[in-house]
Amino acid sequence: MTKERDELPTGFFRALVDHLSDLVIVIDARGGIRFASDAGITGAPRGTLAAPDPADQAASFFDLIHPDDRRLVDEAITDALGQPGPAVPIELRAAGRTGWRTLELVAGNLLDDPEVHGVLVAVRDISRRRHLVSEESAGAERLRALLDAAGDLTLLTDAQQVIRYSSIVSTRILGVEADRLVGQPLGSVIQIESQPVLADAWDRLLRAPEDRVACDLKVTRADGTSGILAASLTNFLGDPAVAGVAVAARDVTEARRAESLLEEFGQQFEHSPHGLARVDDEGRFHEVNQTLRSLTGRDDAALAVSTLAGIVHPADVEVVRDFLLAPNETAPVDVRVVRPDGQEIWTRLTATMVRLAPNGQHMLSVQIDDINDHRRLAETLRERNTALAYRATHDGLTGLPNRQLFVDRLGHALDRSLRHRSTVAVLFCDLDHFKVINDSFGHAVGDQLLMAVADEMGRAVRPGDTISRFGGDEFVVLAEDLEGPAAAEVLATRLLSTMTQPLVVEGQQVDMTMSIGVAVASGVDEPSALIDAADTAMYRAKRAGRSCYRVASTEDRDGA
Predict the structure, then answer these.
(1) Is residue 381 part of a domain?
(2) Which pLDDT value is given to residue 55?
(3) Which secondary-structure segment (H or E) carries 549?
């Protein structure tokens, strides 16, 4: 091998070095540049004559070094000149085409080597490596921040149950800082009576690694108090990126204590004002209290052969099944219980506890409350609110939309007309000599007449038009999607024709006419301006002799 190497020409090695991704510079004992490879780090394209002289090539690189890092490079080369052998690599910044790059520089003293006789400086671009490391570190920090902000405690253990990671939630739940938990056995925070539970859960987790195992574990906090954690264990031992078991634990101490008290005091269960039952995961009743028997109209024997889904309305069966599938994750649900006599009672189901029975079956404690009165009250309130909302936007006498609702509809109609380039018109209708009729026949007859006029106008307008009573004897019509301004006049003529025949009110014939002002939207009108223009045109119709219509003019719009 030595002989073959000696026979290779010098140009072979120079070409080989020039094709390395590293920049190689050789500096003699006086600091002169003997050689510089063409690595492209300096920015000059490979194979060009941009810097044919080694000194120029090296100078191009040194000019790119960040000012703050030049002293560091000088010291590294000076140290290399003073002692043989390779030096410790240093990192520095150098200018690149898109910003500062991170480079690694190693200087080695080869002055005693007769073939080199200089300091060998190798420079490598490690920007991408640093970027990848930075991204990976940032991702890990984001994940750590999410776990630390969560409400649950997160732990990661190895196959021997030694804790490798803990979120800072441990301080709140256990009173122990996360760093102090790392390296400790998982069992060190578990009470003795829960050790078999943990062992069983761990065994199931290893036998069925694809399953998530949940269990309650009693723990001892740093202050000596006891707590209960609802733990969920997931096996990631086969995942090389994790290589551990993840434990998510929630503090359920108070909830479990309340459930325990409920179990201990059987009398409280039996005489509770709430309907209470213990059912299995298929909804079969195992224990019920007096309130539930009364609510469902069934005794213990009847409920023992029934299921929760079997006593509710058929339309609510799926709701009950979903409730039983994930009771801990389901909010209270409202269903109708059907009594044997067919009576339907609205009830609210709430899961209060899930536990494992001695036979291994999950048992669910359910609270079933009668909310019939609550729903009736809510329905009454809804109906009352609906009625109030209707009265706020409709005329109390005729049931027609009032001014507020009319203005709102007109605003929307004007917006639509701008988008679809359609025609919108407002027809302001005022009954002629209505005061005389009120004075002659009385207000009761006047009210009947107003309702009769509203009915007649309803038959005259198109199905999509809006008739509104503004008060007194004023009616206003909103017509949109007209074929053009002339169509508004056709509608006005049709409204006038409804008044050609006497109206019969309480057996009396009453002659009635109306005056109408028509205003067609120009495309940029405000609702109030269009109404005022139609009102002004209506008064012109009054002055013209009544029982006619007038179209709003430019003067009417300016005056409005």
Answers:
(1) no
(2) 61
(3) strand 549-551
Q: Which residue has the higher pLDDT, 247 or 241?
A: 247
Q: In the structure encoding, which two tokens stand for residue 406, read together?
A: 């009319």
My answer on whether 366 and 408 are in the same domain is no
For residue 234, the cross-strand partners are 212, 246
Would you state the pLDDT for residue 43? 58
Helix (H) or strand (E) holding 304: helix 300-304
Residue 92's domain spans which residues? 2-125
Read off φ and ψ for residue 383, nearest 5 degrees.
Answer: -65, -40
Q: With bands split at pLDDT 50, 70 and 90, how would you rate the model's confidence at 53?
A: low
Q: How many domains does the chain have?
A: 4
Whether residue 163 lies inside any domain: the answer is yes
- CA distance linking residue 81 with residue 239, whole number of Å: 49
Same domain, 291 and 236: no
Three-state SS letters, 12-56: HHHHHHHCCCCEEEEECCCCCEEEECCCCCCCCCCCCCCCCCHHH
Q: Which two tokens stand for residue 145?
A: 């921040």
Determine contact, residues 409/463, Cβ cutoff 8 Å: no
Look at residues 143, 219, 138 and name the one whose alpha carbon lies nearest to residue 181: 219
Phi first, then psi: give them for residue 116, nearest 5 degrees: -110, -55
Q: Distance from CA of residue 247 to its chain's centroid?
A: 27
Give the CATH number of the domain where residue 551 resides. Answer: 3.30.70.270
User: How far is CA 256 from each of CA 252, 261, 376, rounded to the nearest angstrom?
Assistant: 6, 9, 34
Q: Do residue 270 and residue 241 come from a single domain?
A: no
Q: Does the pLDDT value for residue 411 go beyond 80?
A: yes
Whether residue 225 is predicted with pLDDT greater than 80 in this model: the reply is yes
369, 492: one domain:
no
Residues 245 and 263 in one domain: no
Per-residue confidence (pLDDT) for residue 48, from 0 to 100: 42
Query: Does the pLDDT at position 3 exceed 50?
Result: no
Task: Report the SS3 class of residue 486.
Answer: helix
Is the pTM of the predicted complex or chain greater than 0.70?
A: no
Known catalytic residues are 473
Q: Report the DSSP beta bridge partners of residue 110.
A: 118
Q: Are 351 and 328 in contact (CB under 8 A)?
A: yes
Q: Which residues contact 396 (CB under 8 A, 6 or more apart)?
A: none
The Cα–Cα gap between 263 and 257 comes to 10
